[in-house]
Amino acid sequence: MVGTSIMGIGSSERLKAVRWTKANDISITGVITIPGSALVTIQSFALVNLFFGKA
Fold it and tell me: Is residue 42 a contact partner of residue 31, using CB atoms and an 8 Å limit?
């Protein structure tokens, strides 16, 4: 991810160069994305099976 690369470069220069609130937002988004996409996939699969029968 581009955001984490920029954080790594900033922290190698000096720790105050990183916007830690933005780093926290990026981390939270990364943690939420995978379970969220899995949930959408499960719901989509269930709808397809409902309308077209078992695959």
Answer: no
Terminal Cα-to-Cα distance of the chain (whole angstroms): 35
In the numeric block, which tokens belong to residue 26? 């990026």
| Residue 19 vs residues 8, 12, 13, 23: alpha-carbon distances, Å | 11, 13, 13, 6
Please state the domain extents for the chain.
Answer: 2-52
pTM over 0.70: no
Give the tens place of pLDDT for each residue, 36-54.
999 999 999 999 999 998 6
Distance of alpha carbon 55 from alpha carbon 51, whole angstroms: 11
What the block records as the tokens of 20 is 């830690």
